[in-house]
Amino acid sequence: MQYDRLITGVAAVFAVLTGMLTVVGLLVNPAVLFLALMFGASTYFMYYHASGKMAAGVYERVERRAARGGADRRSSARRGGFGAGPREEWTGPRDGRNVRDVAREARRRASNGGRRQRQQRQAGRQRQRTRRPRRDDGPSVAEAYQRLDLEQGADESAVKTAYREKVKEVHPDTDSGTEREFKQVKAAYERLTDD
């Protein structure tokens, strides 16, 4: 879920609560208006944050401070310390773009990046499902016949029958079977049915 959408949704719920509490405060008890005021302030700050105006404002202040060389009356009196002021080596966007445009572009890239990563993961899974086995994957044809206890050149129905019998013996749910043997039998069957 996208963070901005979540914040916007919560802000919408708070806005509805603010409206309801305002009506209740005006009609029933004026003390409820204080609660409505708190919900209203929360709504405003959530929307302000989700719209990107808060980040743009911070970027603009940092840009102004960086343009002055970081020399502010408060910061020039004392160097070092803690705080969220600009670093001397930091330079903002100097290509003529507005800081709000840069912030908006960063948000767009972040949301597209998540979508792009999901698409790449999905495409990777699709490739894994549809990839045909290569010659070097799994056992050779001779090894596959040997694992299924068949003679080379057995027809497909004999391979299927032998596979079903062998799987019953080596399945991990049985007492004598192991996962490794099961995977080997399955790989042998896949080799003989795909060739």
Notable characteristics:
8 helices; elongated; mainly alpha; 69% helix
Description:
This protein is mostly helical and about 200 residues long. It contains 8 helices and no strands. It has helices at about 5-25, 30-50, 55-65, 75, 100-130, 140-145, 155-170, 180-195. The longest helix is centred in the middle third of the chain and has 32 residues, at about 100-130. The radius of gyration is 33 Å and the shape is elongated. The protein starts with a helix and ends with a helix.
Q: How is this structure best summarized?
A:
The protein has 195 residues and is mainly alpha-helical.
Topology:
Blueprint: H1 3-27, H2 32-50, H3 53-67, H4 73-77, H5 99-130, H6 141-147, H7 156-170, H8 179-194
Helix pairs in contact: 1-2, 3-5, 6-8, 7-8
The biggest beta sheet reads: none
Task: Quickly give the structural class.
Answer: mainly alpha
Give the termini distance in whole angstroms.
44 Å
- One letter per element, helices H and strands E, the order comes to HHHHHHHH
Beta-strand percentage range: under 5%
Number of helical regions: 8
What's the overall geometry? Answer: elongated
What's the total count of β strands? 0
Radius of gyration: 33 Å
Mean pLDDT, nearest integer? Answer: 77
Low-pLDDT residue spans: none
Helix content class: 55-70%
